[in-house]
Amino acid sequence: MLMETAAIDLEGRAALAATIARRVGREASDFRERMGAGALDVENKGLQDFVTVADRHAEDTIRTAIAEQYPADGFMGEETGGTPTGEGFWVVDPIDGTTNFIRGFRHWGVSLAFVAHGKIQIGVIYDAAVDKVYAAIRGGGATKDGKPIRASAVIDQNRALAILGHSRRTDFAEYQEVGRVLYDLGIDYRRMGAAAIGLVRVADGIADLYYERHLNGWDMMAGALIAHEAGAVVSLPPLDVALGVGGAVIAVAPGITKVVAFLHDFAGPLSEP
Questions:
Q1: 73 part of the active site
Q2: What pTM was computed for the model?
Q3: Cα 51 to the center of its chain, rounded Å
Q4: 103 phi and psi angles, rounded to 5 deg
């Protein structure tokens, strides 16, 4: 049984997560620059899923650092697995946007979420494109390198910018339909290939919407909390579903939620973070 949230050292865990996310992110960047794409030990795991030496090293480093300071915490990593045990547990994607990382496209990041008392309590993401750490503790707002951030105040859909994700686990026709409806609404959109980074772009007010039909828990959980704490309206699967089979995520600036309500028709049952 999980301890009461108040009894868990969230501040200490968040500080550790921010430090280790920045460290492993910079190490991965340095590794990528030294080795170049051709020398990376890339192993194809299936559609859109790649493993690299940097992935494995990053996850091992994160796991070790957490175990040293909080040995009772559970750990679930994209590369090494794990189970949700202990006072609380971490859900980690050591490099979200691995294909971008491999090819030298800098929209990738390091994502750490801490779950306790049945809720995401901490979200931390290192953004390689700007060398910044986004972070949130439930109820405490969201920050970028310690400075508060807020979701966009845009209310005019013709000024809105969306970021879409697409998984090959879902129908491409649906992705096209979402793009078509956004286009008809006058909302411009991009696709970057890293959900964690798309979600913090909404948190930072750079984009006004992030939507993807299917993500795994480690792809969405940290970014969902950060966007939520920044004031975005966020929907994702219930915790057990997100950890089990994954699902859709929607993060939208509050001023245009009604405009993009149609996305829930595609997404299925969702809840707040």
A1: no
A2: 0.93
A3: 18
A4: -85, -5
Instruction: List the catalytic residue out of 219, 226, 229, 250.
Output: 219
- Give catalytic status of residue 256 as yes or no: no
- The verdict on residue 135 lying in a domain is yes
Specify whether 42 is located in the same domain as 68.
yes
3-state secondary structure of 174: helix
The active-site residue, picked from 20, 52, 59, 98, is 98
CB contact set of 116 (below 8 Å; sequence gap of 6+): 2, 3, 5, 8, 87, 88, 89
174 is catalytic: no
Percentage of the chain surpassing pLDDT 70? 91
Q: Which residue in the list 95, 125, 197, 256 is annotated as catalytic?
A: 95
210-to-134, 223, 232, 257 alpha-carbon distances in Å: 16, 10, 10, 12
Distance CA 188, CA 64 (A): 42
Residue 87 has pLDDT above 90, yes or no: no
Catalytic residue chosen out of the listed positions 73, 96, 127, 208: 96
| pLDDT above 50: residue 3 | no
Told to judge if 93 belongs to the known catalytic residues of this protein, a careful annotator would answer yes
Q: How far apart are CA 225 and CA 266, in angstroms?
A: 22
Q: Are residues 16 and 134 in the same domain?
A: yes
pLDDT per residue as tens digits for the range 137-156:
999 999 999 999 999 999 99
Domain of residue 203 covers 157-267
Helix, strand, coil in percent for the chain, rounding step 5: 40, 25, 35
Q: H or E segment at 132?
A: strand 132-137
Phi, psi of 237 (to 5 degrees): -65, 155
Total domains in the fold of the chain: 2
